[in-house]
Description:
single chain, alpha/beta, Purple Acid Phosphatase, chain A, domain 2, 5-stranded mixed sheet, Phosphoesterase, Metallo-depent_PP-like
Amino acid sequence: MSxxxxxxxxxxxxxxxxxxxxxxxxxxxxxxxIMIQKWNKKISSSDSIYYLGDFGxxxxxxxxxILKQLNGxxxxxxxxxxxxxxSCKNRFEWIKDYYELKITDSDNDEKKQxxxxxxxxxxxxxxxxxxxxxxxxHSHGNIIDDPHELSFDVGVDCHNYYPISYTEVKEKMAKKTxxxxxxxxxx
Length: 187
């Protein structure tokens, strides 16, 4: 059985992201290599990963080489820095601007969990009042996590440069104080 993972904002090949996001790498080559290793340590060839944008800021040929090294079936939700990724479209299962994923989940009263996936953090999302999760990237950990919202940044800068599993997402959401409000209806 395959597992489901999420990530964003690797910025492979992007020298300036090291200082911009205060990443602990001495060079872009070291950053790329370590992040490839961390990706493959968690993700097998049969796993699915929903990638929420900004794969790389490098030439398409360089990104194509990086993508060949990464395990898993990659679903890309476009970010603002995905020009090179769009040139490598055959490596992705699909490419979309936004996606609502439904995962079968026996722990959930509904027996499924809805996740709204978008590169950017948003304040309102589909089925928010009914407990859907919103996962985003783009912010590199610069948005303060709201403990009352079922939403958070899945970018690598927030997760020690690893993708995170659906199980980890559920664990993080379980610590939040959000409560279902049956008196409200999603608009």
